Amino acid sequence: MTICVPLTDRALVEVSGEDRVSFLQGLLSQSLEALPPGEARYGALLTPQGRLLFDLFVVGRPEAIWLDVAAARRDDLLTRLKIYRLRARVDIRPLEAGVWTCWPEPPGPGWVPDPRREGLAWRAWGPAAPPAATGSLEDWRARRLAYGVGDAEDFDFDRDYPVELNFDRVGGIDFAKGCFVGQETTSRMKRRGQVKTRLVPIRFEGPPPVRGSEVLKGELRAGEVRSGVDGLALALLRLDRIDGALSVDGRAVSAGAPLPER
Questions:
Q1: pLDDT tens, 3-54?
Q2: Where are the domains of the chain?
Q3: Is the pTM above the cut of 0.85?
Q4: Alpha helices for 96-195 (secondary structure H)
Q5: What superfamily would CATH give domain 196-262?
Q6: Strands of the sheet with 64-70, listed across from one edge
Q7: Are strands 197-203 and 232-238 parallel, antiparallel or unpaired?
Q8: Residue 166 in contact with residue 117, Cβ under 8 Å?
Q9: What is the third-level CATH fold of 3-154?
Q10: Nearest 10 degrees: CA dihedral of 97, 162, 32, 261?
Q11: Neighbour-count burial for 54-87, b at 16+ CB within 10 Å, e otherwise
């Protein structure tokens, strides 16, 4: 059975105009070169210091590029892009169209694979999406947590570094492209092996801990919980403290392995 979920927590920004590719290419962590209509890539817009500002999907369209971003942060993204626009020949505007995900198979044409993990889901925007939902946002949360994939609700914007959030392991950073905002810090963390903390799955009995709950190894802080469902959550943990007995709110917790290299 195919499950389809309207992602009401996501929204779209349209960037059009003859400079749209070069404009976004100099900003985003993902390459836009040879992005054909109908293809989606995952990426981010960072601060100059390399911290995450926006996670987003970059969607190729015939005469534009769509940015699929957290709905609560769309206005902030519009403002930030317009600051960077300067003399670039681009038009930036909000786009009122739906964002959908489905799994394990697409219900029809117009769907593209979620680029973050093979087999995770399919994604569609606007009229390509189905007319009715067969699942909920909670179903989608359980699906992506089972694959160890973070989403906007797992990120502390303007605080977290994208490599800590596994952007390097879900195809969200193109280390071979030219300059982008925040590239120097991001590349240095990856190149020098300075990643000491990562988003990893944790398992436990019962309902998920509240976001921000402290994960302990004995009396030492190991990290904090981000999003979760019954029995499973993602937590931002120190890699040197993920082995052995962990606890959250007095409950035993076991940590899984970080996502593998792509």
A1: 999 999 999 999 999 999 999 999 999 999 889 999 999 999 999 999 999 9
A2: 3-154, 196-262
A3: yes
A4: 137-146, 183-191
A5: Aminomethyltransferase beta-barrel domains (2.40.30.110)
A6: 40-46, 52-61, 64-70, 10-16, 91-95
A7: antiparallel
A8: no
A9: Gyrase A; domain 2 (3.30.1360)
A10: -110
A11: bbbbbbbbeebbbbbbbeebbeebbebbeeebee
